[in-house]
Design goal:
Layout: H1 4-7, H2 14-17, H3 30-33, H4 40-49, H5 57-66, H6 81-91
The protein binds iron/sulfur cluster.
Residues 23-25, 50-51, 54, 56-57, 60, 76-78 line the site of iron/sulfur cluster (SF4).
């Protein structure tokens, strides 16, 4: 994949525009975050390698869960689409 993690999404999340914090994935290979398939194992690897210690983990996860599940691809905050779908269901009132 070319273009980097930020350019592959239409709207850059606010937490990625904040220059006062440095996401752990800022210099990562985008292929790590957009694998085919977006398996649970790939999500776990990203979570361990990058997201666990990321300064914006909570913001990233909240943003990912606020997006339409079927339109957001990638392993945001160490989650894949299926995981986000389940988390959204669990959060629903
Ligand atoms: S939580 Fe993970 S995907 Fe989100 S900004 Fe941090 S390292 Fe990147």
């Amino acid at each position: 994949m070319t273009g980097g993690i930020i350019t592959v999404i239409e709207a850059v999340p606010g937490f990625l525009r904040d220059r006062t914090v440095r996401p752990a994935c800022v210099d990562a290979d985008p292929d790590d975050f957009f694998p085919e398939p977006e398996s649970v194992a790939a999500a776990a690897a990203v979570r361990v390698l990058y997201c666990q210690g990321c300064a914006v983990y909570g913001k990233c996860l909240d943003w990912a869960l606020s997006q339409p599940v079927d339109k957001l691809h990638g392993l945001w905050a160490g989650t894949n689409q299926g995981m986000r779908r389940r988390m959204r269901t669990q959060r629903a009132p």
